[in-house]
Amino acid sequence: MTRTIRIANGQGFWGDSLQAPIDLVRRGPIDYLTLDYLAEITMSIMQKQRARDPGSGYARDFVSMIEEILPDLIERNIKVVANAGGVNPEACRDAVIEAARRRGFGGKIKIGIVGGDDIMHRLDDFISRGVELKNLETGEPLASVRPRVQSANIYFGGRPVADCLGAGGQVVICGRVTDTGLSLGPMIHEFGWAGDDWDRLSAGTIAGHTVECGAQCTGGNCLVDWETIPNMADIGYPIVEAHPDGTFTITKHPGTGGRITVASIKEQLVYEMGDPREYITPDCVADFTTIQLEQEGPDRVRFSGIKGRPATEFYKVSISYSAGWKAAGSLVYAWPDAYKKAQAADRVVRERLDRLGLKFETVLTEFVGVDACHRALSGPPPPDIAEVTFRIGVRSENKRAVERFTREVAPLVLNGPPTVTGFAAGRPKLEEIIAYWPALIPKSEVHPQISVVEA
Amino acid sequence: MARVKLLQLAHARSGDKGDTANVGLIAYKPEYYPLLVEQVTAERVKEHFKGICFGDVERFEVPNLHALNFLLHQSLDGGGTLSLKTDAQGKTYSTALLRMEIEVDDMLARSLADGQT
């Protein structure tokens, strides 16, 4: 009998279902619960929160969720791995400890941290030593936007997660650990996979990629036969049944909604794919062209045959910086001539912006209901189209220009084309643009920091 | 020969990396995959997405999944948080690609029309 561990993912991004992690713990057997909270932009939001309040800067939702499931975790020895720590894993840990003590579990659970990913305070040192942190897309050195940088974090992989589990952590709170590392870490820990076991590390990485978007591999956002996917309201989140040899099966708890088929899994495998032979993580370079899939039962897809190559000498760095301002507003025009009215409104707004002498890097108009998603591929709209949403957005380094724009949409309900509504939400919101700057850094420059304490 | 929409032969999912959108195109049946490889070229996809994609289109073959992966560069108005688009992450480019028509033999066209996919 092959040893199997069951790793469930209950969060595809910060803002995903609050109920999913609780259901994963309570509606069937699992050994590990992973939770992915961090997108590129999230770190800068958390950095701002911490600047205002040194005790914040992590995913607060995580703490209340852990408090809810603590009795289950302790009774059944379920381990949790989450990148909920954001830019302040220590504060996140302290909040979890406080919650555990409040519930009477003091001394009954060990909380670990994987940190060391925050390099914000070291950027000037790196730059002065010739570590340029060039933008991977444009080739520009970071020095060109240095004063505007808001956050800078290394993507660590599954190895430090495994080390933290090995040090006794039952709840492992990470900073910027890769989505795939959250699932791979438990496999390295349980199966003792070596640092150069590239095939198995790649298998674990591909398992992590498959479940990292939560229900997006169990029937959510699935195009194949979407109308017949059962009970989407109670969709089951994914579980990896992992084996020491690197094979694994993706499944979900019995009685939950959704559907897992080879087709639904393939859709998730191609999601955000680049070169399929080179899926680069801190742990390995996984080759998606080696995956063999098999439907081994209802809602069960087995993966085998996965090969990989050695990891690179670099970590990826996620840097965010202020890049100007934007705003977008919309109005809804009704039959008859809905599309013509919306087009007329666009001409009016643009002319008024011109008269005000406002300059923008971009002014973008969309007609939602006509062609906002597929542009010209949508073909002409029906002449008697019932309604069209006119949506206009601007972007500029000049905050005042964007602010002024936010006052130029609503007046159209009284001083523009007729049969218009949909302005109840008020003026367009002025938003600061926090842009993403991907870069690489030699692995020798940074090291993960691990600690474990008892609650 | 007859022309059919990719929607009848394949499904798809799309996502983003910065200002680049990716569209994964997956054949419903292994025997459809060679048709995709032959006809859904990077050049045709670039032409199909004119007015959306302003950079190069790269194509990768994933034969084990009977899939092609396309990278559409400069397609998201700057991408991520810069983008003003409703679909700033290119999530709907999947079905935009499925609007493309390719040529199939008459027998396959008839069986698709009969719903025997």
Describe the structure.
The complex is a heterodimer of chains A (455) and B (117). Chain A is an alpha+beta fold. Chain A folds into two domains: 5-117 and 155-312, no CATH class; 319-435, Alpha-Beta Plaits (2-Layer Sandwich). Chain A is built from twelve helices and 19 strands. In chain A, the strands form three sheets. Chain A has a ten-stranded mixed beta sheet with strand order 11-12-8-7-1-2-3-6-4-19, with helices on both faces. In chain A, helix 7 crosses helix 8. Chain A is globular and about 70 Å long. The two termini of chain A are 36 Å apart. Chain B has one domain (2-104). Chain B has helices at residues 33-39, 42-48, 93-98, 106-113, and strands at residues 2-5, 10-17, 20-27, 57-62, 67-72, 101-104. Chain B starts with a strand and ends with a helix. At the A-B interface, helix 9, strand 14, strand 15, strand 16 and strand 18 of A face strand 2, strand 3, strand 4, strand 5 and helix 3 of B.
Structure described in brief:
The complex is a heterodimer of chains A (455) and B (117). Chain A is 28% helix and 25% strand.
Please specify the SSE layout and strand pairing.
The complex is a heterodimer of chains A (455) and B (117).
Chain A: E1 5-9, H1 20-26, E2 32-35, H2 42-52, H3 60-76, E3 79-82, H4 89-102, E4 110-115, H5 123-128, E5 149-154, H6 158-166, E6 171-174, H7 179-191, H8 198-211, E7 239-242, E8 248-251, H9 262-269, E9 279-280, E10 285-287, E11 292-297, E12 300-304, E13 307-309, E14 314-334, H10 338-355, E15 362-368, E16 387-396, H11 399-405, H12 412-415, E17 420-421, E18 431-442, E19 449-454
Parallel strand pairs in A: 1-2, 2-3, 3-6, 4-6
Antiparallel strand pairs in A: 1-7, 4-19, 5-14, 7-8, 8-12, 9-10, 10-13, 11-12, 14-16, 14-17, 14-18, 15-16
Helix pairs in contact in A: 1-3, 3-4, 6-7, 7-8
Chain B: E1 2-5, E2 10-17, E3 20-27, H1 33-39, H2 42-48, E4 57-62, E5 67-72, H3 93-98, E6 101-104, H4 106-113
Antiparallel strand pairs in B: 1-6, 2-3, 3-5, 4-5
